[in-house]
Amino acid sequence: MSSHHLNTEPVLERLFFNNRVFFLAFFLLATVVLGWQAMQYRIDASFEKMIPLKHPFIQNWMERRDELGSGGNSLRISVEAKEGDIFDAGYMESLRRLTDDVFYLPGVDRAALKSLWTANVRWLEVTEDGFEGGPVIPQTYDGSRQSLEELRVNILRSGQVGSLVANNFRSSIIEFPLLEFNPETGEKLDYKALSQKLEELRTKYSVQGVDLHIIGFAKILGDLFEGVDAIKIFFLLAIAITLVLLFAYSRCLKSTLVAVFCSLVAVVWQLGLLTAMGFGIDLYSILVPFLVFAIGVSHGVQIINNIGIESAHDATPLDAARRTFRTLYIPGMLALVSDAIGFLTLLVIEISVIRDLAIAASIGVAVIILTNLVLLPVLMSYIGVSRRASDRLKVTEKKEAITWRAMSYFAHPVVAPLSVVLAVAGFGASYYFSQDLKIGDLDPGAPELRADSRYNLDNKFITENYSTSADTFITMVETDTEQCSSYAFMDALDRYMWHMKNVDGVQDAVSMVTVAKQVIKGLNEGNPKWQALSRNQYVLNNAISNQTAQQLYNKDCSLAPVLIFLEDHKAETLQRVVQATEAFAVENNQDGLTFLMATGNAGVEAATNEVIGYAQNQMLVFVYGVVSILCLITFRSVRALICIIVPLALTSLLCQALMAQLGIGIKVATLPVIALGVGIGVDYGIYIYTRLEGFLRQGMPLQQAYYMTLRTTGKAVIFTGITLAIGVGTWIFSPIKFQADMGMLLTFMFVWNMIGAIWLMPALARFVLRPELLATKAREEAVLKSQVPAG
Description:
It is a multi-pass membrane protein. The chain is α+β, with helices and mostly antiparallel strands. Helices cover about 65% and strands about 10% of the residues. The protein folds into three domains: about 10-40 and about 225-435 and about 635-785, no CATH class; about 75-175 and about 190-225, no CATH class; about 455-605, no CATH class. It contains 28 helices and nine strands. It has a four-stranded antiparallel beta sheet with strand order 7-8-6-9. A three-stranded antiparallel beta sheet has the order 4-1-5, sandwiched between helices. A two-stranded antiparallel ribbon has the order 2-3. A hairpin with a 2-residue loop joins strand 2 (about 120-125) and strand 3 (about 130-135).
């Protein structure tokens, strides 16, 4: 190698390869330290991290949290008698003991616990002597037939049939909200431990003649935690698949192991850095280490492939590694910086789990710049490609030439227009089918879990056996202090409830007015004609003075929630409820009367849907904007930008159409997929365009330049796309539905991004690029360089 050539080597190349021992020692030390940190990572879960805390609905709830309780974070346990009904001494004893066990579970808001055995579940009736009432469980209850009959009467008088007691009297519910932090210790609620305790109760009471059906946000998280082991298995499976396919591709065990090792080092560094920064891994970002591994392998294959080609032309391991670094570090750096900044665009979504995912993915991609663009070629400069693999590459290059020659026709003047027409048709068709794409959940129960999961079967049981569903939308109605019993305020609540009961998807609406009407009717001999609000203030005061009504307004009588029970929490149902409430609020809000949305699990989900609906287009604009700017800075050509971006855009639109047709809504679990797909997919386009432009600058015709691109970078892109698709495709069999959905979508995007780069980019280049202009510029640059004195 001449001194002149050495002087023209990039500064980074000289820095890394002239100081290889120092940098290897640095990588070893960093890996040990960060590996130790990574071993301390924790899986984090929090109700508040899953919701948009800055959304007006959530802020309304948070400001009134002490008066309203835990919002949507509650659990319901339906206790079903295996034989007979609930009016059985054995069943009632099991229910009593279970209520006591639940009372002492961590995180339970004990004051709000409701069961047939708690004092806050009461009956009320009017007699000739006035009002009579008391706890549903008689004070004289002893399990005898007579006391069980009295219990039956009390339950019928309590109005709890359909809500706390099943319509068929074969089960009853224990309901309790959860506290995010333990008020005594200040520690966060451990959802995994809580779910395990609930499962222990399920097992314990199953042998006592009752079956437990448990639903609620905390149980969803608990069941997802159980699926974490499956995620680990799929990660190991992906590593094994990658090893096998990479070895089959390279036929060099050394380079295969080094490439996979460097990608695993990136994962270790990512987990270590996240732990050192105080971040936990939540149930969504736990999938990010696989994506980091996948991106690392993607770039590693390019490097191994290029080193193999150089070695086949008799370069030494050091020269092959240096030339590869010199060729690939700029496109590799551009691709990875685009990935990292593109992932950071997810920060525009004000939901903590998505922001944490964005940070985790960006850190992971950033470390790949070191582990795969630096560490991998430096290691390969010592290890090299085996002679057997180099000899095989010389033979296969000749055999594969026919395939690459055939595929180069994608850039042919006759084929390219057909490809562009087909792409335009793809844009049109995907746009048409993507119009059905919905925001939020499209299925009942927990869409994060499969339809036949234990949780969704429990949810189905409760939905079928109770009149009021678990999907509750709570509107907060505010007035002045001590004015919640005024006729004007209660009449507004009454009209709002009637308004909402006529909205499609609403089962029922309950508020303090519901109790007041029942009391007024009771005071008038039970005549249904009197089941209405009185304008007499003394009557209204008396009607809400009982214990049942007092649970439906706050202590200073300035806030009353309206509980709206929904048939489901599908996006369309929530949208109708929100629009109906907004319309009513616009007409009725005034001084001393304000309708505020929303809490309850359905209210929280409605807020989440609104944030995602607004952010999805904003996120796409940002991610494509970032990638476009970086491509313009690097290639300084709008033509290059078109060649790289158009195939990505087609894949994104096709993915949205696929989601619409498969019934997958845009939600917390699926929204990041599109950004991740763009981030990973742009790598293919950058590598291929860089090589294609290089050959065009040498004066080659477009089809010949593309043929040379396919022989080098193109086959590595094809291999990477297929390998990553197979690895992530295994997720489709995961017991966790959202992981299966992500696996399906990422598989689709990996494959289509690869197809777009291989098939559509050369066709676009035929119309967009001007090869003769690139060749002229290259000659001019060469002349200018030759006129610069060496050294």
